[in-house]
Amino acid sequence: xxxxxxxxxxxxxxxxxxxxxxxxxxxxxxxxxxxxxxxxxxxxxxxxxxxxxxxxxxxxxxxxxxxxxxxxxxxxxxxxxxxxxxxxxxxxxxxxxxxxxxxxxxxxxxxxxxxxxxxxxxxxxxxxxxxxxxxxxxxxxxxxxxxxxxxxxxxxxxxxxxxxxxxxxxxxxxxxxxxxxxxxxxxxxxxxxxxxxxxxxxxxxxxxxxxxxxxxxxxxxxxxxxxxxxxxxxxxxxxxxxxxxxxxxxxxxxxxxxxxxxxxxxxxxxxxxxxxxxxxxxxxxxxxxxxxxxxxxxxxxxxxxxxxxxxxxxxxxxxx
Length: 320
What we know:
Number of strands: 3
InterPro entries: GPCR_Rhodpsn (IPR000276), GPCR_Rhodpsn_7TM (IPR017452), Olfact_rcpt (IPR000725)
Keywords: Cell membrane, G-protein coupled receptor, Membrane, Olfaction, Receptor, Sensory transduction, Transducer, Transmembrane, Transmembrane helix
Strand order of the largest sheet: 2-1-3
CATH topology: Rhopdopsin 7-helix transmembrane proteins
Radius of gyration: 22 Å
GO molecular function: G protein-coupled receptor activity; olfactory receptor activity
CATH class: Mainly Alpha
Low-confidence stretches: 1-13
Family: Belongs to the G-protein coupled receptor 1 family.
Shape: globular
Pfam family, one: 7tm_4
């Protein structure tokens, strides 16, 4: 049974002490399959992103702006899945689906902040690719270490502020009645649908800040790639065009995957938002962080070399 604030101590403004995360299925057989599937995907995500971070940290050849941003992106993805999947695995294995009110808001804060951070880092990486392809002679000065650190600090600060804004506004919302969440984590749209108080302020701020934190970087990335395409088309040789495009192909693939899955989940009115849109949820919350290390290392010779030196050490150097 869910306890109300009156039954506890009268201090919880939300009206509830916990929520029930029902996940994607209530069938015991399907839950066993989901447990092993998500555990496997989580381990692959953790190993992949940790290897990317270690390879970039220990290999001097990768101490460049592009790989600095990539290391931050991998850290963000690693933190993102760790914020949601372990709790889901515990729920699937133990059948204890309860998450406390404070735990739900904590999960919401990190979820919102990390998605925003992912988005801002991708925009920063687009700027890096724009400078590298469109202004190669000025790359060293335009992407100086000081500027890179400043850009990353700005990304982190904006994402923290965005997460705090949405989470603090959620503390004003009152919940009553059944608190069953047909989702794999505490998500802002789902919580707003469960509210029994006026959420107009939440909606307004969510739209205003969301447009700034997501659409502005998206517009910046579109403009950056428009300039990149123009610059590539001016290259006379086919080999030169291929080489220039290959330097940004991985980033373009990650951006498409990120915004594609995010759009599947959020480009719909709050009133028609489905709590059982499981495919889009899994793609956006689990598959995207898992795929990013593969996309960035698949055809990247520098990353192949760094991973080889990290895992095999001197044996790899003799092979090469």
